Amino acid sequence: MNRPPPIRVLTVNTHKGFTALNRRFVLDELRDAVRDVDADLVFLQEVHGTHCRQSDHVARWPQAPHYEFIADALWPQFAYGRNAVYPHGDHGNALLSKYPIVAHANHDVSVDGHEARGLLHCTLHRPADGMRVHAVCVHLGLAEAHRRRQLEQLCELVRREVPDDAPLVVAGDFNDWRDRAHPVLERGLGLSEVFVQAHGRSARTFPARWPLLRLDRIYVRNTRGHRPLPLPRRPWAHLSDHAPLAAEIAL
After folding, report:
1. Which of 141, 142, 145 minimizes the C-alpha distance to 109?
2. Arch. (CATH architecture) of 7-250
3. Which of 77, 90, 148, 194 could be 247's S-S partner, Cβ–Cβ 3.0 to 4.6 Å?
4. By its UniProt entry, which Pfam families does this protein fall under (predicted)?
């Protein structure tokens, strides 16, 4: 029996469509770079839903929410989890998918009085074989104590809502510069990180121009195989403060 091809996954913190230090609005360039990867699933963090003040003053600000602008015609399915809400707009996590999204829910894991954070859980249907694939787009806090709590909430979410034998991809910005998430997610959920499995260490992704810190991750469970995909330094180094990660995952 012929198996469907591996799924291609991309994760990137969009920095709300601006370059590092908010010097230039580059959402159209970011969209082109995302399209060039041709991923089946795109995990986005810090992506705008709305911002009425910026839309009036920033050139080339799209009328559609940023995740819809990036999805365009290439990803017919998308889900958005609004994490941060302020007087002029909102931002959060989004998943763009070439597969039908049959269910999605955003889980607030914010710590009171600190930055808004969320876990966007989507259930996907792969038409080629009818398989249900679960995807969780992650953006964790800057403080280690907050991340510990949020990792516990991620484990609780997966145990509660994801069948033990279902393929699972968990990707996004973990802000985990001390690599504390690996043992928690390996012991608690049986997750493997794609770059750790391939290279022995997670990938350096921040700051994008001269990556030093290992903040972003792609974790998997119940897969037949996986491999990191190399991405060119340009144009990505100029499109956000985080470098993206990509992988092929055989289910």
Report:
1. 141
2. 4-Layer Sandwich (3.60)
3. 194
4. Exo_endo_phos
Between CA 108 and CA 150 the distance in angstroms is: 10
CA distances from 157 to 95, 108, 154, 236 (A): 17, 11, 5, 32
Helix axes 181-189, 144-161, angle to 10 degrees: 20
CA distance 136 to 154: 9
Q: Which residue has the tokens 């469907």?
A: 4
Mean pLDDT by 10 residues, the chain (251 residues): 89 93 90 97 94 75 92 94 89 97 97 89 96 98 96 98 98 97 97 98 96 98 97 94 97 94
Handedness of CA 62, 41, 81, 46 (dihedral sign): negative
Whether this prediction's pTM lies above 0.85 is answered by yes
Q: Which of 198, 190, 146 is nearest to 170 (CA)?
A: 190
Sequence letter at residue 27: L
Domain boundary assignment for the chain: 7-250
Specify the residue for token string 């999805």. 71
Q: Cβ of 81: how many Cβ atoms within 10 Å?
A: 24
Q: Which residue has the tokens 């985080």?
A: 242
